[in-house]
Amino acid sequence: MEEFLDSIKKKITNEIEIEKINVIDETSKHLKHKSFDPQKKHIKLEIYSKQLSNLNNRLSAHKKIMSILKEDLNKTIHSLQILIK
User: 40, 42, 44, 45: which could join 81 in a potential S-S bond, CB 3.0 to 4.6 Å?
Assistant: First the structure.
């Protein structure tokens, strides 16, 4: 799992200027959900980035991150929480 989290971090930092990023696996918090799939991950991103903060709005920042992680969202990520600070 650590390898997957590192790959997410690398994809984002390769595309966006990041001061700090935390990629957190929160899958264990969702084990009892009706639609839980052990192959799909629940990920939380805490991103400190002047570049993202300077975009017109948070929606633009979220879209940028979602486009970077598009393939992962289709295959591996069930839920993505994005916090930009």
Answer: 44
